[in-house]
Design goal:
Four Helix Bundle (Hemerythrin (Met), subunit A), transmembrane, MAPEG family protein, 4 helices, MAPEG, single chain, 0% strand, mainly alpha, transmembrane helix
């Protein structure tokens, strides 16, 4: 599970970086808290942070459950890294030009969906195995 744990550390560290990017944009564009609107670049940076947060509720347990029930050495960490790559692509493209964010969004949702499928599959397989033994 150590590799899965490292994947979780990766995605939450990336999220912390997105928080810091938002804070930097808040200062750069003079957006006083608690405002979340103002300069378009700040708004896009803030949306990257919040949209990533919305997916972490699926991805962090997904990394853990996929590692626990399916594969803690390759599949779970690999999907975690793919999610981080997808969010990086999303971050760069959305802040630069929101209309170009599609690939990062699609890849993020694909990985999140795979975590749901893998977690459910692994848990159901574990239940069925325990019922038969």
């Amino acid at each position: 599970m150590a590799f899965s744990a490292l994947a979780i550390v990766l995605v939450i560290t990336q999220y912390l970086i997105f928080v810091l990017l938002t804070a930097r944009a808040r200062v750069r564009y003079s957006i006083k808290a608690p405002a979340t609107v103002g300069h378009p670049v700040f708004e896009r940076t803030y949306r990257v942070q919040m949209n990533t947060l919305e997916l972490l509720i699926i991805v962090v347990p997904g990394i853990w459950l996929t590692g626990l029930f399916v594969d803690p050495y390759w599949l779970s960490p690999l999907l975690g890294v793919l999610f981080a790559v997808a969010r990086l692509i999303y971050c760069v493209t959305y802040i630069r030009n929101p209309t170009s964010r599609g690939f990062g969004v699609a890849m993020s949702f694909l990985v999140a969906g795979l975590f749901i499928v893998c977690s459910a599959y692994g848990a159901i397989a574990e239940i069925l195995y325990s019922l038969n033994h």
